[in-house]
């Protein structure tokens, strides 16, 4: 528990103090956001706002996590970083680097599109494949690996789908959720708030799994999770960094996270889903990004079949912009939806522990 608090506080303070420094640095170098011409006209005022703020989130989260463990070296019970946590941080950082390249190309070439879609997808697939292969290695003393080659909801279930099948499944989830957070990042503070409630949920989930680990409290509902407490530390470190960033990203945003931040955040929640054995629960837990992604798929599919649009514009948040909703109204209401999705998922997670009548 101490590590969770230290990681959250350190990353929060670093992000809170580091983001204005990044704003000045990026503004001085001309690292401003380019706006798509086909986007809502109200977004033109945001042209030139510093972007790539996700670099602050990633760096602050990494320092917060490793700083928390460094402080334990001076205690009687040092706690080194765990494999599960390092793999999730690798996934976050790797996808963040892919997003950074995308953002930098946009800025350098002064256009709204960065990496070509094929190159961007290749980067996501390479990082995801490395994560998939490594997370079924490194068993601990109880022969528990960071993830398992089975599907999971509240825990692993069913037969193994094999390493190849598992790798394909991991890539599907990682690419899907990193792009889902990227699509959600269309309004000031929207993606930050929506992802924040997911990370807060994983702090609770990691703590609960620790208290009911099969290695210490064997029972019918116990959890075979390798490093639940340290995964909660990772979630807390990223959450702290995200809250500090949101202070400056809230409407009207002084800086955008860019693909650097959105891909990194999508990666970290996907990584936590695999290492806490809650892959399918993530669909509910991160319900808002899922719905926003579905709106894009519905819009594109329906237009190709009929030549007509279901929404005025996709992703979904832009549909409500064109209906005349104020940006802050959309953001706050979507935050509420994100919180309700997370609460519903946590309710399902704890449901099996409710007393049976």
Fold and architecture overview:
The protein has 357 residues and is mostly helical. 66% of the residues lie in helices and 1% in strands. The protein is built from 12 helices and 2 strands, in the order ααααββαααααααα. It has helices at residues 2-29, 54-72, 83-109, 117-134, 162-184, 190-211, 228-249, 258-275, 281-285, 287-306, 316-322, 327-351, and strands at 151-152, 156-157. Strand 1 (151-152) and strand 2 form a beta hairpin. Helix 3 runs antiparallel to helix 4 and helix 6 (190-211) packs antiparallel against helix 7. The longest helix has 28 residues, at 2-29. The protein is globular, with a radius of gyration of 20 Å. The protein starts with a helix and ends in a 6-residue tail after the last helix. 48% of the residues are buried.
